[in-house]
Amino acid sequence: MAEVVQVQKRDGSLGTAASRRLRKTGSVPAVLYGHKQENQHLAISQKTVESILRHHSRIVELQGDVVETAMVSDLQFDPLGIEVLHIDLQRVDMNEKVTVTVPIRFKGEPIGGKQGGIVIENAHEVEVECPVVAIPDFVELNVTSVGLGEHRSASDVKLPENVVLVTPGETVVYHVEKVKGEEVDETEEEGEEA
């Protein structure tokens, strides 16, 4: 379910100085764009922005001066990565398909890690296409069976219904590397090959 976000239209003054003044009043500047409509410059309260971050909201229902369904497409943070300086919102139709980036949640402990291998997470997210109403919070990859010298690709990620992988399937997202210079027990290696 989309989070309801109260928005106000910003007056004609735009730019860095106007944005700074707006933030001093406890609001965050935002822009709403898409669907071949004119861009709308908005203000959202800091508390609402914190709620969006806390709930990892992707789809929001805008209320107030503008009534639209939108996707949070980008958040710009200060150099310390603490304060949100600006939000980009993209108009969406709840029936349309969108391409979004979602985090990968690795599940399990790999066999190769228990055998002394070095676990490397090559990617922490994948790009997927799905209906707006079906955007997953994360996708899962079970890594329990990954042995020494083995890897898992983006195509191994478990996707929910109506979600299609956009990231090339052969992209390596996880692997267990053999430690260089260390002898690996041959019986373990033979067990892996069988």
Automatic annotation (TrEMBL):
Domain Large ribosomal subunit protein bL25 L25, first and last residues per copy: 6-89
Name under which the protein is recorded: Large ribosomal subunit protein bL25
Function: This is one of the proteins that binds to the 5S RNA in the ribosome where it forms part of the central protuberance.
Ranges of residues in domain Large ribosomal subunit protein bL25 beta: 97-178
Gene (UniProt): rplY
Domain of life of the source: Bacteria
UniProt keyword terms in alphabetical order: Ribonucleoprotein, Ribosomal protein, RNA-binding, rRNA-binding
Quaternary structure and interacting proteins, as annotated: Part of the 50S ribosomal subunit; part of the 5S rRNA/L5/L18/L25 subcomplex. Contacts the 5S rRNA. Binds to the 5S rRNA independently of L5 and L18.
CDD domains: Ribosomal_L25_TL5_CTC
Any Pfam family the entry gives: Ribosomal_TL5_C
Organism: Stieleria magnilauensis
Family, per entry: Belongs to the bacterial ribosomal protein bL25 family. CTC subfamily.
Keyword Ribonucleoprotein listed: yes
A GO CC term attached to the entry: ribosome
